[in-house]
Amino acid sequence: MATKAFQIRLPENQSPTQTSSDPINADTQAAADRDDLETLSLVVSRASNAILIMDSAGLIEWTNDAFSNLSGYASAEAVGHKLSDLVFGPSTDAETRKAISRTLNTGEELTTDVLQYRHDGTTLWVECKLIPVNDDVGRLSRWIVIESDVTRRRQTEEALLVAKKSAEANSRSKSEFLANMSHEIRTPLNAILGMTELALTTDLSREQRDYLQTVQTSADALLELLNDVLDISKIEAGKMEIDEVEFNLAEIIRETTKALAVRAHEKGLELAVHMPMTLPQELRGDPTRIRQILFNLIGNAIKFTETGEVVIDVEEQWQTDSEVCMHFSVKDTGVGIPKDRLNKIFEAFTQVDSSMARRFGGSGLGLTITSQLVRLMNGKLWVQSSEGKGSTFHFTLTMKLATNNSETSDPMLLSTSDTKHANRSTRPGHPSLNDRRVLIIDDNATNRRILNEMLTHWGMAATLCDSAARALMELETAARKDEPFDLVVLDAMMPVVDGFQLAKMIRKRRDLKPGTVLMLSSADHLNSQTRCDELGIDNYLVKPVSASTLHAAVVSVFDRSDSDVESSETVSRDGTFSRPSSPRLRILVVDDHQPNRKLVESILRRRGHDVRCECDGDAAVAAYRHDRFDAVLMEVQMPNRDGFSATQEIRAIETASGSHTPIIALTAHALQGDREKCLAAGMDCYLPKPIHAADLLNLVEQVAGGNVAINSESSETLAEQTTGSFNIASALHRMGGEVDLLKEHIGYVLNDMPQLLEMMSEAIEREDARQLQIAAHRLKSLVSSYDHEEARDIAQKIEIDAQRDRISEAAARIETLRPLLKTFAQAVDEYLQTK
C-alpha cells in the first residue's frame, strides 16, 4: 500500500529565497531545497523501521508503510489518533504508559520497550523512541516516533530469565538436599565412629583391631568428604558467610600445624613454620576460614609429599594504620604439577591426573573450596610448581588490624623498636636471655633458619650446625676458648648420628661443658621423654614449635638452672609442666561434666601420663573390667550411676581378683558428710574442686605409688579460697600457668553457664530435685575455679536445697545468681579477647 510522501514544511515567514538577495540564486536554492525534502520524504516513507510524526499534543499526523505493516493500521486509520489509543492494551506495562505520558508532557527524549497491540489484537514487543522537534525559538512543534520489532530479543531474554530462576531454584533445592542428606548421613556415621572407638577400647585380637582401625579410617575419610561437599554447596548457593572477629594469627597457625603435625611426622616429613617476629598478629577477620584454607593447603602438601619438607611462610606485603596485607605460602618437596594442569587444579573434583586419586586418595574438592574461600575474602590464590620438584601455593589476604594491636601479641616478646641490647626476651622474675650463647643443631636448613631468627630476636647469640660432627667441633672450639654454650638446641631425627646419640656423646665429654640441652623432634614417640630423662636432657618439644612455646621452654630451663630448682618440682615457675621422674601412669578419669573432665585430662597428659576418660559410673565400671589403671579419679555427683556406686562396684570386682586400684574422689566443695561417704564407699582419698594442677599431680603420683594412706588429711587444705568477687589469675595458677588451658576452660564456662542456668530452671519447673542438684553442682565447680565465692556459695545452697527437696527456695536463689554470672561471663570473655 503506497503512502503519500509527507512534505516537511519550513517554518512560517521563511522561504528558501530568504537565503540570498539574488533572485536567480534564490530560485535555484529553493529548487534544491525542494529536491532534498522530497528525497528525505521518500527515504522516511520507505524506511524498514516504523516511523510516525505527531504534533506537539501527541496526535498522529503521518505514518510510513513500515508502521502499517507493524501495527496493521493504515495511515488514514492512524492519523488524528494518539499512539496510546491505537497500540496500548490490557497487558501493556503501566509504568511504561506513565513514562511515555510524562515524556509527552515534558518534551524530553525517551527510548523504552513497549508491549504493543496490533489491529487484530495480537501483541509484539517494540523498541519505541520518542524524539522531540523544536522550532527556532525552542518551542515543541512536533514528535518523531521510531519503532523497531524486538520481540525475538525479548523472548530470548525472558527465556534466559526463566532458565536463571530455574537454575537458582535447582541450586537451592540441591543445597537443601545436601544439607538434609548430610544430616541423614552424619547420624549413622557418628554411630559408626562412636561404636568403632568404643570397640577399639575392648580386648581384641590383632586381626580384629586392624579391621576396626580400617573402619575408623574410612569413616573419617567419609566425614571429611561430606564436609567438603557441604562447603561447595554453601559457596555455590551464596550461603557461605565471612565473619569479622578479632583473632591471633600466630595462634591460628599454631593450632593448624599442630593438628597436621602427626600426619607429617608419620611420613617422616619436616613441618616448619616461618613467621617473622615483627608481624602484627592481633587482627580482625574470619579465623575459621583462614584455618580452613591453611588446613587444606598444608594437608594437600603433606599428602603429595613423600620425602623432604613442608614449609609455611608468612610475610607482610603492606600495612596502613588500619589494615595489613599478608602473603602466605605453603611450599613442599612433593610430586609437583605439570604445566598443562596448573590452571585446572582449582576446578571441582579435579586432580593432576586420574592416578593421583588412586595413589593419594581425596575427592579433588579441597583446592576448589580453598580458591572460593580466598575469593570470598577478596584475596588472591595462585600456584607455582615444577613436576617432580614440588609446589608452592600462595595466597594473599587483606585484614584489619585489631583494636590496640601491637607488633606482636606474645607477652614474652617486646616490639622491634627495642634497642639492640635491650632485654627483649624476659618478663619480671624470669632469667635474661640476652647475649646467651646457643648452638643450633639440625640437618634441615629451613629449621635452622627459623630457630636462628627466633633465638636471635630474643638477644641470644646463635651458632648453626647441620650435623653431629660439625656440632662436636663447635663444642670443642668453645670449650678451648672457655666460652661454652649456654644452650644446645638439638634435633632428635638426623641422619648418620641422631640427636639422642649426639646427646649421649656430649654427656660423656665433660670437657665440652654443654650447658642446657633442649631436644626438638618431628615425632612424639612414647619413649622419647624417657630417653631424654636418661640422658639428662632438660626439655623436649615436638615440632613445629611456635615462638611462644620455644620461648617458654628456653626460659624454663634457664629458670631452673639459674635458681637451682630441684628436678622433682611438679610445675615449673613459668607455668609449664615438667615430665615426671616416676613411670608414666595409666589413669581413668570419670566426670560427667566436660569442662572438668577436659581440664583434668589436659593436666595429666601434659605431665606425660596416659589418660582414659569416661562420663558416668557405668562406663567407669565397664572400663575397669577391660583395662588396667594405676589410679582412678572419680567424680562423686553424676547422673545414672554416681561415683559412690561405681566405686563400690569396682571394689566388689577387686575382691575376687585380690587387686586394689587407688580411687581419688573428686567433688566441688563437698557437702557435709560427703567425705565420710567417699571413704565408706572404698575411695582412698579425697580432692575437692576447684582443681589445682600441682596438687592434682602430686596426689595422683603419690597415691599411684602407694605413698598416701587411706583417710589422708593432706588434701583438705586444697579447698582454701581467696577472698574477692572472682580471680582469673587464680584460675591460671590452678592450671599450672598454662594460658591455652585457661582459654579452653573459659570457653567451657561461657558455653556451659547459660545451659546450666536453663537446666536448673527447667528442673524447678518439673520439680526434678535430682536434676537440679546435678546442675548446681556443675555450676559450683565452674565458678570455684575462679574463686567466685558469692556465686559458689549460692550454687552450693541451691545444691543443698535440691538435696533436701526445697524447690521454692532454690528458685529464689537462681534469680540472685543470674546477674552475678552475667557480670562474671562478661569479664572472662573480655579476658579471652585480650589473649
UniProtKB/TrEMBL annotation:
It is a multi-pass membrane protein. It comes from the Bacteria. Residues 12-25, 408-417 have a biased composition (Polar residues). Signal peptide: none annotated. The modification 4-aspartylphosphate is found at D491. Its EC number is 2.7.13.3. Residues 36-107 form the PAS domain. Residues 110-162 form the PAC domain. It catalyses: ATP + protein L-histidine = ADP + protein N-phospho-L-histidine. It is found in: Cell membrane. At low DSF concentrations, interacts with RpfF. This is Sensory/regulatory protein RpfC. The lineage of its organism: Bacteria, Pseudomonadati, Planctomycetota, Planctomycetia, Pirellulales.
